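If you are new to this repository, start here. Below is one unmodified record pulled from the training split, so you can see the exact layout before writing a loader.
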Amino acid sequence: MKWRLPILLLLLLLGAGGLRSWYVWQRDHSQDAPILAAARRYGIEPALVKAVVWRETLFNPNRRGKVGEIGLMQIRDATAGEWAHAERLPNFAPENLYDPATNTLAGSWYLQKLLKRYAATDNPLPYALADYNAGRSNVLKWQHGPAATNSLAFITQIGFPGTKNYVRAILRREEHYRPIFPPKEVK
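And here is the target side for that same chain:
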């Protein structure tokens, strides 16, 4: 009789852990299709797009940012307008950014643009992520001396702790996703 309660508690904990694992798995894969389509469209690493979505909104397409950012990749109106103009979408409205497919297309287009902007560096990714988070004017402040082209030096010179954490978190998460996303297709 004494052993039943501890075993029951253990089973409940294991069940709750299994439920949490299922929820996290569901959440982490809820936006795979639009992420993969957008990354392929703009020729960037799908794991990178997924890592940005993870960091920005934890896969919640209805998220709204403090200064008006919208959707999965937290796109601002001005960025969305640039994307819509580049893609010749005359009837685009910012509300369309709540659609995961539209949002990941606009965000992936913007990431591709930023990666090209810093192509002369040893690794454009930290520069592009810092720009995505804090803006080009701040990247230009941090991009001097060896940090002009050396991404490790650049990361140490990022002047906002939140942006430095943002860049590091996405770099780690992209490394986590790279071997598993996109999933291998079964033939």
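Two things worth knowing about this chain: The chain has two domains: 32-111, 118-180. The domain at 32-111 is CATH 1.10.530.10 (Lysozyme).
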